[in-house]
Amino acid sequence: MAFEPRSIDAAINQRIFDTSVDLILVVDRTGNLIRVSPSSLVILGYPCEEMNGRSAIDFLYPEDLENTRNEMRLARKGRQTRNFKCRYVHRDGRVVPLVWTGVWSEPEQQHFFIGRDMTEHNAQEERLNRSQRLEAIGQLTGGIAHDFNNLLSVVIGNLDLLSTQPTLDKQAHEYLENALQASLRGAELTQQLLAFARRQSLIAQRFDLNERIAGTIALLRRTLGENIEIVTVFDDALHPVLADPAQFEAALVNLTINARDAMLSGGRLTIETHDVTLDEDYCRANTEVQPGDYVMTAVSDTGTGMTADIMARVFEPFFTTKPVGKGTGLGLSMVYGFARQSRGHIKVYSELDHGTTVRLYLPRATESGAALPQAGVTTQPEPRGGECILVVEDNVQVRKMAVAQLNQLGYQVIEAENGQMAFNILKHNDTIDLVFSDMVMPGGISGAKLAMLARGLRPGIKLLLTSGFAKGVVQNSDDFPAAVDFLNKPYRRAELAAKLRSLFDTVPR
Ligand code: ADP
Ligand code: MG
């Protein structure tokens, strides 16, 4: 069957009109809708039949009316294609941002508009901006916390040294103890900042979330008080996770305390666990997480909920809506950093006046994901030794403190202020039993490289590296030598003592 060229065109036009994902509007010069494409149903929630014949003003976002009128006038004057932004209002009340291309047809005395729905695009951009902002704050915070850690190492170390002075009286001891407590609190704060910056020390283990949660709740009951009901919904067939159990517990405590603070006049706290698979689609919208198998913990409250403005900022360090002394604004920052450093994910859902759910996703442990050994922390008297230790550290104060601590513990000590000097010493001195080195040092030979060189010279030599950066961050870096031990800064003398003994007392295989 043959068509007239005109009717073929008309059929094609009709098909374009009917199948367009964008919103197509044919409008007369006063703004009445002559024809609306069927995509209006998806974009604005109205079937096109309901819009045809009505004024565009009925659907426009009022603030954008003047601008749209102006665009139409200019189009009629210039008769060229124009692009502009203008928002409409969805049937459900939501504002729909649209980008328009408009032309005016003089013969037909009609405006022809094609509008693209920017809702998803704008949301994606907003998410990207937010994650870039957090990324930038993380960089800054991590840098400051790292330097602070070094300073606190010096303070705590020197206070530890002082406290062993036999001549101190009771009063001096008290001052000392106060100073030590404050420094330790400072170290705690820098740990929280490092957690946010994804640079904390994490010891990932395979463990059962349900068991951990049950244990933590038992401890939290008192803190939560009488008027908060606690409900748990555990997935009995839950897979084990691979994460740091102590940090998971800390995260759970933070989330429950937030829930409590949101339910000051009582309510219900629900903790749920589930195996979850995050698919490509989810991860496209949440770009910081990889598709895969996770175990989810959801902490929900029936509290105040949050506005969108608050939601947008909850992960920022020091962002708090609580009165001075009540909130630090570091709780969710830590949980965020912990989730991301553990290759997991955190998602907040909240409805103002109804409540909040925070979902924490941690990676499922694989069958072979055996538990890693716990770092040795001892409460026994500090073990001493007489071996010879080469201390390599570019920061003079940190080095002096390490030397003093090692001397106190009975060790012989040789110092070097960078990797190159340390290497020269090692070449000419075969009494050194252990190299205790900082990781990042100027001069081209890092702690990691020094360890390799030392091993090359003296295969049996013991090695201990230290850094303010987290163990996980350091040990997962490409150049970290295999089977070398690590001590996180700031460390207590007791930790150093224990670590050294465990190194010296293991017999090489
Ligand atoms: P802090 O608890 O010290 O204020 P957080 O980082 O834990 O710091 O939380 C930041 C802010 O996020 C809180 O001050 C609060 O405004 C909001 N928030 C967090 N959790 C909840 C919740 N469960 N319900 C309502 N608001 C919350
Ligand atoms: Mg909090």
Taking the sheet with the most strands, its summary is: 5 strands, antiparallel
Find the CATH superfamily of the largest domain. Histidine kinase-like ATPase, C-terminal domain
Rounded average pLDDT: 89
Counted by DSSP, the helix tally is 16
| CATH topology assignment of the largest domain | Heat Shock Protein 90
What structural class do the secondary elements suggest? alpha/beta
Low-confidence stretches: 369-379
**CATH 2nd-level architecture of the largest domain:** 2-Layer Sandwich
Strand composition percent? 15-25%
The backbone outline, from C-alpha atoms, is elongated
Q: Ions, cofactors, ligands: which are bound?
A: adenosine-5'-diphosphate, magnesium ion
Rg for CA atoms: 32 Å
Percent range of helical residues: 40-55%
Instruction: Describe the strand arrangement of the main beta sheet, using strand numbers.
Output: 2-1-5-4-3
Distance between the termini: 89 Å
The tally of domains stands at 4
